[in-house]
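From the shared-data thread, chain only:
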Amino acid sequence: MSALSANDLSAVQRTYLGVLSLGLVSADQAKDNRFRIEYVSAGAHALFNGLQRDAYLEPDSGGDCAAGAPFRGELRAAIIDLDRKGVIGVGPPQDLMILKPSAPDPDAIYGEVDLNRHPPIFDRFLAQRCMDALLENGAAHAYLMELYAASGDVWHVLYKQGYGNYR
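Structure, as tokens:
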């Protein structure tokens, strides 16, 4: 398998991988919907493309803003493709799929992909390149660094509460 470059990925894949690589706290840990990965990805993708941050957002049933259905669909497809390429880990390992007695529908193994789960990144170099490209854009940089700073504050509180303290 040859190494992938950022040019081998779609624009949404590059944005998603770049956002994941930032290491932001999850929305569940922060108890703050601003950190939902689909929300951050939609905002960063819009800013990177010269649009308003809310271009891909729409109000959800709770009154909060969330990525709109078209963007969520693109993001879901991007996540599945990144998993199939071995860049991130969402579904079952690809080499175990041959052990399954019947060939399932390729999308059935993914069921409902949680767009806000932070999957493990297996190609850290590629993810870093995607993050660097995002941060080179002034508008996206300002938005992501604001979230990064707020995320750092949450990580600090979590660490003081013992989260991630394995000694």
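Residues 7-160 form one domain.
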